[in-house]
Every structure is written in structure tokens, then in C-alpha cells.
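Hey all, quick one. A colleague (J.T.) asked me to put the magnesium ion job into the tracker so the inputs and the C-alpha cells live in one place instead of scattered across chat threads. No bug as far as I know, just bookkeeping. Sequence used:
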Amino acid sequence: MASITINTNPAIPALPRFEDKKKVDVRYMLIPPYASAHIYWNNKINELVYDIEEPLLQDSEKDVLEKLEKAMIELININVAIENTLEATTSYIDKTARLLIDELNIPVSHETYSRIFYYLFRDFIGMNEVDPLLRDYFIEDIECNGVDTPVFIVHRVYRNLKTNLVYHDIDQLASFVEKMAQRAGRYISYASPLLDGALPDGSRVNATYTKDVTSRGPTFTLRKFTKIPWTPIQLISMNTVSPEMLAYFWILIQYKCSILIAGGTASGKTTLLNALAFFIPPEARVVSIEDTREINLPRENWLPAVARTSIGIGKVGEVDLFAILKNSFRQTPDYLIVGEVRGKEAFVLFQGMASGHASISTMHADSVDTLIKRLQTPPIELSPTLINTLDCVAIATHAIVNQKETRRLREVVEIVNVNRDGTALVNTPLMWDAAKDVFYFKKQSKVFEKISLRHGIPMEKLQNEFATRTKVLYAMYQQKIFEMEEVQKVINDYFKNPIDVLAKFNIEG
Ligand SMILES: Nc1ncnc2c1ncn2[C@@H]1O[C@H](COP(=O)(O)OP(=O)(O)O)[C@@H](O)[C@H]1O
Ligand SMILES: [Mg+2]
């Protein structure tokens, strides 16, 4: 029999956004080639829903699966298995299953075996029914409120969705909660029925373990893991940005300019935002506002705020972010980071920028034109004057280079002036050439001119600083200084004592 391949690291698709929810009908792979997500408007219940699509098993195949699962539980040591690499574990499960099929003398075709294997993989290596959800990059939270009620999720693009996953059996749900407790290295029992821990992938899990018949049985909430951020130097090594681009942002950030990162879904906006935040001067006070915790900074003077109500019912978002942002000004931040600008909180952000707060934020838009338009139309509706406080837009994009999915910072666009009719005059100092996969420094920066005027620094000095910092960043890349703490230290040292840093890297300042 041919061997089985299962892809646990599928490419992240660029998901379309729809003004009209009723138009949503998207499907993407979660565990190729077996499981996918289907998100669509369900006419019967007038709601957007999320269906997990998995291989269908005939009754006879279900019997085989059940027999195999029972036999395998006795045979394998799953704790040993999950400590190995995923490939090793997968092939271990595969081998064991084939052995049992031989031993028990069960006739199965390759097709049947491959479908059955998916379930063995899901239930032994993965997290059972919720495994596809846990592997969906776009899912932030998973919530189960007991048996006979659908599991809800929060999706990055389509927000709160009801899924087609429903537990009907209290025992099955209870044993799943036990499994989570075991993976989290916690002890759970009817005497101490509350679980609060982390799964091996870093996801937070909260669960209640109860068999009280009057209730709906056990419940759980899974909050997906926030990744360790990529540093600016790692982004250089992936060729997402050039050292020049970063040196440019370093100067803009130091002089308290405002930067907005635009791009499509999963184009790397938040990743870039987090990397740019490394350039915020060490003594500055930073407030970050998000509706999912994604930003992670190696600094002390930082106040992270998360706008999040409980999921499943009601709506998340705009009003909360708005309220938190307004409130954050009481903290008198020097720098404001807004994870994703979606609605009316944009007004508070831009007002803050107009009154001298520096900001870095992201927003969903594929070009500067679309961005400027979105900022001026409902629900945001900013005036051209207010949009003028934005200094620079960075456009992040998906790119296929050498047949591989990657991300590139496509252009750095400076907003020179937003006219009364809402059109914008722009200047593009840096850009990426898709054909050659190289970055160009094209034009003189207008924002440097602004900085020069505002702070009384000669242009020549800014140019030199730009060139020197480019060299520092390139040297860090060559010396493989990639780690979060290390990278932050060099940048902070440069702020305090540039001469020492230049000497350390053998650079003439
Ligand atoms: N520079 C990059 N190179 C390669 N992959 C990236 C890069 N930046 C982000 N990604 C991938 O894309 C995913 C989405 O990134 P994220 O920054 O969350 O996008 P966005 O905020 O635009 O939705 C990440 O989980 C990561 O796997
Ligand atoms: Mg994002």
C-alpha cells in the first residue's frame, strides 16, 4: 500500500471580505488533503456558519475505525509518541495501524485506509473533533458550552461563527476535557473540576469537568497561542524587507512619525508591526490596543490592552476598541499601537496622531488608494485634514517566490498631502521589484524633509543616519543576531550610545 501523506502546515489563503455577509461562501484546507473549512451564509438560520468538512465514513468503515482505535489504545504509548516529531509520530501510527489490520485480518482498500487514517491521526496525535479548528490559522477562540449545543469560534476575518461541531455525549465530552488536562499537564477530577492551563502548542485552555445532569455537562474555551514575534533581522533574512526599509522606519519611529501597515488578510501586517515596534526608543511609554492578543514586545514600559467580550453571543469589536483607545490617552503614551484599525476607533487614533502621539497600526487594504478611500467612508469617515496626519503607509503582500509562499513589503508610500476632494498626493521612496525580487531605494524621502524641518536636523545628517543604520542592520543580519532580546539590546544600545555599537560592528559612522 502506498504511504500516507498528511499536510499539517498548509499555505494560509488570502480570504476575501464581504460587505454583505450573505455573500460569504469560502472554503479552505485545514489538514490537506482531508479536512477543510467551509464558511457560508446559512439561509435557514440566517447566520454565517463554519462547517468542518472531513472524510465521510460508511458504517462498515466506522466499524473498522472503532476496532482499530480500541486495539491501538492498548498497543501504543501516546506520550512517547507525542514527544517525537510529527512525521515520526505519524509514521508510527501508520505502521501500528497497518500491523493491526494484518493481525486482525481486516480487509481494507487503500481509499478506505487513507480515510480511516485521517481519524486515527486526528484522535491519537491531534485533539480529536476540535483538531481541524485548532489548526485553522484564522481561528482565535473555540468555545464549547456543553452537550447538544454547537461549538462557537471567533474567526479573524468573519468573527463569531457557529460551527457544525456538536457534542451529544457527556462521557465523550468529559473524556475530551480529561485529554486536554493531560496534555496541559494538569490534574482534573470531579473534586477539582476546573482546568486552567496551556496545551503543548501554547494555546490556553479553560474547562469545567462536570457530570451534573441538570447542566449541559463539561465546557471548555480554547484561546489560540500568540506566536513569539519575528524580529526585524529575521524579516531581513526572509527577504520580507530590506535593511534600508528598516533603517528608514527606525528613523521615522524615533522622530515620532505615524505609520500604517496595509495589506490583505494574512499578508504579514501584524508580524511587521511587531517587528517595527523594536525601533521604539527604550524609555518611551507604549500603549498597544488589539482585539486579540498578538503583539509581544521585549520592553518594560508597555501597557498592552485587549478588547474582548465573551464569545458566542453578541458582537465583538468596534465599540470596545474605541472605548479602550480613548481611555488609553489617560496613560499619556508616547507611542500608540493599534493591532487592527476597523471602525470608529480610527477617529480616536488619528486625533491622537494630530495631537503629537506617534503611532503604528495595521489596516486591511490592498493599496494606498483603497486605504485612503476606506478611511473616508463609513464606518470610519475621517476628514482629509485628519488623514494628513498620517506620514507613511507600508504595503505588505503575499508573494510566491521560487514556488514558495512568502511575504514582501511591496512599497513604502509617503502621504504628502490629502486634498480636499479626498485624493492623495504621495511619494514612494522604497519599493520591491516583483520580477527581480529585489528592493529599490527610488526617491528622496519627503518625510525626512518633514523631520528635518520639525526637529531642525540638517537633511545631510538624516541621510547619514539612514546609511549608518542600514549598515548596522545588515551587520546584525550577517552576524545572525536574530533573537528577540539580543536584537532589542543592539537597537537600545544604539539609541544610548551609537559610537559603541558602530565600533562593535566595525562600521565607520
Ligand atoms: N515575513 C513573513 N514571511 C513569511 N511568512 C510570514 C511573514 N509574515 C507573516 N507570515 C505568515 O503569515 C501569517 C500571517 O501573518 P500576520 O502578520 O498575522 O498577517 P496579517 O496581520 O496581515 O493578517 C503568519 O502566521 C505567518 O505564518
Ligand atoms: Mg493582523
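Adding what we noticed when we looked at it: The chain has a mean pLDDT of 90. Residues 232-504 form a domain with the Rossmann fold fold (CATH 3.40.50.300).
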